[in-house]
Amino acid sequence: MSVQEFRNWRSIREEVLRRIEAREWEPGDVIPREVALADEFNCARATVNRALRSLSDEGILERRRKAGTRVAELPTRRATLDISILRLEIEAQGQHYGHQLLAQDHETALPPDLEALAGVPVPHNLLHLRSLHLADGVPYALEERWINLETAREAEAMDFREISPNEWLVNHVPYTACDFTFSAMAADPVVARSLKARSGQPLFRIDRTTRQRGALVTAVCQIFPPGYRLRTGVA
Amino acid sequence: MSVQEFRNWRSIREEVLRRIEAREWEPGDVIPREVALADEFNCARATVNRALRSLSDEGILERRRKAGTRVAELPTRRATLDISILRLEIEAQGQHYGHQLLAQDHETALPPDLEALAGVPVPHNLLHLRSLHLADGVPYALEERWINLETAREAEAMDFREISPNEWLVNHVPYTACDFTFSAMAADPVVARSLKARSGQPLFRIDRTTRQRGALVTAVCQIFPPGYRLRTGVA
DNA sequence: CAGTGGTCTAGACCACAGG
DNA sequence: CTGTGGTCTAGACCACTGG
């Protein structure tokens, strides 16, 4: 083999991938330790570390102290979903975004499945909003949202006909952790009417709960019209 | 404020998050540059870099050369889905995994939606498999799979009644990139019978195409019984 | 207890993009 | 052109864990 130059961690990463694809290193094999690779590639160990860590983050390698680094046998496909704000998703498709507030009231509990997803105690003081996202005037998603008024008091005074609750929250409660659930459901008559679907049609649904420091911030259920598909980028 | 010790990149990361949550740094704000933070935290710049990079990877910060680092305004929620092998998913729930090969033949094209998802030229020499994954004997998912025989010739000789095609592929074609699509569909009579669902019921569906070096390796469509939910970890 | 990856440091140079 | 993040280096110590 010709002498190759490895200048940076990306090229090392590529070379490691190449060896795995070429089955020079097979699933389950322990690969040479960092020092050895650093020596082979004629670079600092930190650089090799950077490359191997990135592969380990993606589940392609498994690393353990003392045990060394091995090629994952049954790699978990780690798909990253970029869940953006619906407005951005719609505008990215070159469509005009619209938002329509259908209902607003106070509730004292979440629906059971969202409560289970939340995994944290849910207060009894919730602002409940039902709204519709539109793309070029056509229903794009029906959204049902609960906002914890103890975490986000100012939400009560907001007029969510102007700004969508999601965008307001994102800018008001900056950093949050969230859990998602994806599922299929049948359109009930109410939902069907909002989304211009027929009752009983299969709809794609995303549930989400958002927390900050262990306290619920908001819970959302978004329902999409028939035919909607959620796509991911690469693992 | 009391003098705090910042020993490692994780603690710096936490402190940065704290400042964002506390709105000391608001969405859109430029935060101090790495050298300044390294100075404040009394550590090397590389350590600050490590902390900020991890936040930037998650979409919480946005970094650009010369422009500096700022708190993301409309952060994209980056959910990571761990799509494991169904056998592992089932066994992780303490259930017994079973696999049943329903049909096997040759086809010359993918269904249109999978072909669109693939994004690479699809050869006309495909092995097609239809199989059922069982958890404790109950249908867990119906799987329809196409394998590119030009990439994975040996697949033709395999007996997929013994080992599931997915597991064989994973060990045979180690590293691959893949794209997913999630959607809802109505059970047609055939699918309904396999999954013991009623015709027309909403089903959750995952489509996936897998590539290696730009060549299609396999395309899969997995359909789950009513009530199935896909959950994610945190962003 | 010893070997491996995990991390930190201090310094350097580079690449990119803002002004 | 200049300031910022991106990366590399050489060396060091630490933490975990397998044997």
From TrEMBL, chains A, B:
Which residues does the UniProt record annotate as the domain HTH gntR-type? 6-74
Gene Ontology molecular function: DNA binding; DNA-binding transcription factor activity
UniProt name for this protein: GntR family transcriptional regulator
The UniProt keyword set, sorted, is: DNA-binding, Transcription, Transcription regulation
Give the originating organism: Aliiruegeria haliotis
Asked if the keyword DNA-binding belongs to this entry, the reply reads yes
Entry's InterPro entries? Answer: Bact_HTH_transcr_reg (IPR050679), Chorismate_lyase_/UTRA_dom_sf (IPR028978), Tscrpt_reg_HTH_GntR (IPR000524), UTRA (IPR011663), WH-like_DNA-bd_sf (IPR036388), WH_DNA-bd_sf (IPR036390)
